[in-house]
Every structure is written in C-alpha cells, then in structure tokens.
C-alpha cells in the first residue's frame, strides 16, 4: 500500500518524460567498457551548444548563450557554469571523436539544462533538516570540536533563517541524541517534508593542512559508481530515492553554487553517493559536507557562530534558487 506521503509527493512533482537520447537519430552512439556513450558534438548540437578544444586532447568546452561546460578527457572532472561536479563516468576519446556516457547526459546535464518543475500551482513549503551524527555517534572529532555538536548548531541556525524566509522547518534531532540512519528520511516522510537536507562536516588525516572546502552529495543513479562509497551500506542498485534523481541533482548544484559563491569556500563539487539518508528519502534529498574540521583555518571558522551564520545564509539562498526554478520553471 502506498503511504499518504508517497501519494502526496506523487502528484506534487510533475515528471515530464525526458526525451530519449538514444532514440535521436542525430546522435551517434558507441559502447565503451560495456556502457553506452554518445558523440559529444552530436549531443551538443541538439542543445544548440558549440564544442571547442581548450587544450587539444586534454580539455574541452561546450558552450551556449547561458551555458558553459568544461570537461577533461579521460576524466570525470567537470564544471557547469563555474560549479565543480563529478561525472558518473570519465569522458572518452577515440581518435578525433570525444564521447560522453548517456547516463551522464541523462542524469548529470539534462536536469541542469532542462530543470524539473512542480505541477502548476504547487509550492515548496516544508523542509526537514538532518543534523548529522548525535548521541553515541560523535562523527569526526578534532580537538574539542565534535561534528555532532557543530552539525546541530548549524542546523539550528539554518532553521532560524529558513523560518524567517517563510519555510516550515523540522529537525531529525533537536538535542544530542542518537537517531538511526534509516529513521532520518522516514521522519521527513512522516512530516510530509518537501525537501530533506542532511548536514555534516568533513575531516581527513592525510593532508589535513591543505584539504578544505565544501561538497554536496545527491543519490547515485542505478548503474553508476559512487564518488564516495564509505558508509553506504550494502547494495548498489535502485532505491526509493532514485525517483527524485533530477530534483536532487539540481538541488545539490544550487546549494554548491551558493556555498562557493557566498561564503566562499573551496569548491569540492557536486558528488554522488548511496548514503543511507539519501537512499530512502521520498523527496528531493542532499547531504552537505560544509567544510573540514581537520583544516587548521577552516576548522576554527566552523566553530565560530558568525561563520555558521554565513554558511546557513548561503544554504538559504541555494534553497531559494532551487525553489524559484522548480516552482516557476525558470
């Protein structure tokens, strides 16, 4: 039986069928390592985009009136309008022809070029914030800084700013308590949240003095590898959250864009992962890694209320930008 929330979300979002790229006769295709790839120049032409080499056999630009995509040959690294993102599969080159995976066209670039939007008259109103870790799970700890405390403080600041902006907001935890990972998106479902945002901070031992910046994750599409396989649990197939792949990718992009422009922080890009809190989310969902506790400068900033206000303000702007796009189709 479908739950009431699933029914509600089912009519809230309009899923106009994405044009079948493989069915377009103007796009030449090939198989590379067992996967379907499209000729990059053919796809670009269907989008009125021009392709040119920036450095022959190394980097390439795909650009139009309002779009600039930067790609690296034999690499998953890419930029979309100045924001870093990771392709699901590396770009390939055979002779003079550059190829891009169909899954990246469908799941990475199409949601940004043809954003999904709500049915006419529908509005985004409710958001569930998920302060990472808590209780017996401290998350990363660097000196006296515990991730679980700082994610709760950031969530509380973000809640205040979002309420001021007119959102209805709830938190998966409001104190230092442990909440099982599968329970977090379920709380969002039961509260009929339109969006789910999980908040975290990062840490690293290798290169702690040089690794910093923010990155935003959305759920990995079926058939693709994750950027970060840590903490995903078993399985790499399709999950409930995959029905919102386009919305979640667009949401992650907007949040990364405003975090890197407004804070600013080092742009570590939009990534994919099958994190528990994203897999079962029955609404667009992202996980934000808002900075590195292990970095000597960024770590000190994160412990500052003023800096967390700045982070929260950027996230609010990113959410507002996403809301504007999906509500009005702009």
Please provide a written account of the structure.
- This protein starts with a helix and ends with a helix.
- Strands 15-12-16-19-17-18 form a six-stranded mixed beta sheet, with helices on both faces. It has a five-stranded antiparallel beta sheet with strand order 4-5-6-7-8.
- The chain has nine helices and 19 strands.
- With 330 residues, the protein is of the alpha+beta class.
- α3 (102-113) packs across α6.
- Residues 1-19 have low confidence and may be disordered.
- It folds into two domains: 21-105, 2-Layer Sandwich (Copper Amine Oxidase, Chain A, domain 1), CATH 3.30.457.10; 117-328, 3-Layer(aba) Sandwich (Aminopeptidase).
